[in-house]
Amino acid sequence: MATESDESVLGGSTSAERRRAVLEKLNPLEMPIRFQLGLLGIVGFVLLPTQLYPDQMGRPTNLLFLMMFAMSWDVVSGYTGQLSFGHAFFFAVGGYTSAILDLQHGITPVIGIPVGMLLAGVGGLLIGIPALRLRGPYLSLVTLIIPIILAKLFTLFNNSLPVLAPEGLGGRNGPGLPTQLFGIDGSGAVLELAEGYSGIQQTALANYYLALGLMLLILVVLLAVTRSSAGDGFPALREDEDAVAAAGLDASRFKLFAFVLSAVVGGLAGAVWVHTVQTPSPLGILGQDDIQTSIDVIIMSILGGTGTIVGPIIGAVVFALSAVVVGGLSDVIIPVADVAVADLRPLPLLAAAMATLVFAPGGVLRANIRLGRRILASARGDEYEGEPIGGGDSALGQIIEKYRAELREIIDERR
Amino acid sequence: MTSAANVIVTAISISSLYAIIAIGFTLIFGVGGVLNFSHGALITIGAEASYLLSNPTNLGLHPALGLVGGMVTAAVVGAILYLGVVQFVEDEPVTLLILTFIIGFFIQHACRVFITGTSDFSVDQVTPGETTIAGVTLFDIDIFIFVLAAVLIAATGVFVSRTKTGKAILAVSMSEKGAAVVGIDARKINLITWLLASAFAGIAGVLLTMKQTGAWSMGTQPLILAFSIVILGGLGSIKGSVVGAYIIGFTETITTSYISSSLQGFTALVLLIVLLLVKPEGLFGREAA
């Protein structure tokens, strides 16, 4: 079946023909506009550091990590419709594992990062298995409080956790700064670069390009998985779980797979994060009240469009740009209230997220693709038919449907 | 060392606060099917309003006026939320879930930006001082909280089961269609529920500030506890919320007093997860309301 679909997509039966077809598909000039724009975006990211000073590189690097986190959320929540309100749990497991292996067991991050990733995957299993039994609101609650419990554990085992972390998890301050992957000469980093200012420059660049490479790798892997036959089950689950079961597919295996995949991706990003630009601490990784990061990730995905993998990346860019724009308005004072616009953060962003939820539930990406198609169509002189409008057509719409059904079930059985 | 009697009194007063927060949360869910994640922000609103009204550095009114003001402000904001946003997306639980979450953050951050900043704030207690009963010294504020909460809970019970409006609330929570058939305006009932629930959250916010201190993000923790309590007791059940509140309040107070204060907010949540896995429908199923 796989070969059949290959042929139908790429056309051609001999390997030479197929190769030519693939090459044609990869020719940037022949691509649909949205892919060209995507490529342009990637080129932009590659070239971005040429426009910045080393001390300005922190934000874009952080942004790349936020993109990875948002993609990780999208795999499980956007695709399979199991809403997670505490995804930072996985980032923290990955980050803390690698940091503590390094600080307290003397294990290099090169090994610690994969271990952190694996442990996050185990975390994904631990949450994914009970998640199979829990419906909508209950799953949301469990995922919401799991990072909070994790943060409490950090405080509870502040000074020592036998065997695992002899010197403790460090409470609110975190276990300390682990070995960096890149640093200037003599800094003790895994890879020591040049001395002095050029070393700082190189470190910032190395962190950035590592994050960019990792982001692209995760993007490709997740796109490949979600567009493969294994990934076909994801949106199917979101649309109609019973139908998946009726087709003889094991719905729970798909759900679990989505959870573990998402956790592994989140854990990997979290682990690399603490060895490059983020300090491992509850505030650093989990955010304000131990839930902010998890919510930010949801906001980004919604802004960009859930259930697309690419959408969250765009959402993250919007998220970061709004912070930069609003943060730059420190001289603009709002009359009456006497507050600088810059101090309003994060209010404008939250307002934008609310507006997106209400007016464009498919996200910025889908809205723009639709807008773009309409413009192209009118340029050709055609009438753009458009896609069926309404909640049902977007991924969020389907999540809503699923959730609504589960909610109805809960309400009905209580009657 | 704290005496057992004091621990119990603290547990009762904290549980009473949790109960009125959870009742509001569960009422909104029961009637409108809405999981209102901005409920925590309404707690903050109540606290901030009372700070503006009765803190000596601001208007310096009597704390009782601050209590009433906090209640009214929260109720008004709740009504605005329902009329301005919620009623338009009522049929989309996920949108609403995330939306109320974001609105909650928005309100709390707005309080931080425009009113109190990141520092803690305090409000004078309505009933300062202590009373000694049978050799046990109690803070009057704890007694006040317990009595007020008991009155509110009892009043809610009477309101829902005896008055015409209350019965209409029950009817809508049972079946919106059925209620519509007998001529009940579901929108009006929803609005009343939001007013009531938000007023309760506002009162809880003021009392929390009087008992401890207030802060812009003070609503988040009670929100999560309220959600836990409601799930523990069974979504949509008033009785379940009260029982759940006392279970969570007591577990929390006893573990923090006798085992370690770092366990705050930990035992209750772990307990909840265990229960959720064993008995996902909660202690009490959904009853009348």
Automatic annotation (TrEMBL), chain B:
Keywords: Amino-acid transport, Cell membrane, Membrane, Transmembrane, Transmembrane helix, Transport. GO terms for biological process: amino acid transport. It holds the Pfam family BPD_transp_2. InterPro entries: ABC_transp_permease, BCAA_transport_permease. It is found in: Cell membrane. GO terms for cellular component: plasma membrane. Its main location: membrane. It is a multi-pass membrane protein. The chain crosses the membrane at residues 7-28, 65-88, 94-115, 136-160, 191-210, 222-247, 259-278. GO terms for molecular function: transmembrane transporter activity. The keyword Cell membrane applies. Signal peptide: none annotated. It comes from the Archaea. Belongs to the binding-protein-dependent transport system permease family. LivHM subfamily. This is Branched-chain amino acid ABC transporter permease. It comes from Haloglomus irregulare. The lineage of its organism: Archaea, Methanobacteriati, Methanobacteriota, Stenosarchaea group, Halobacteria.
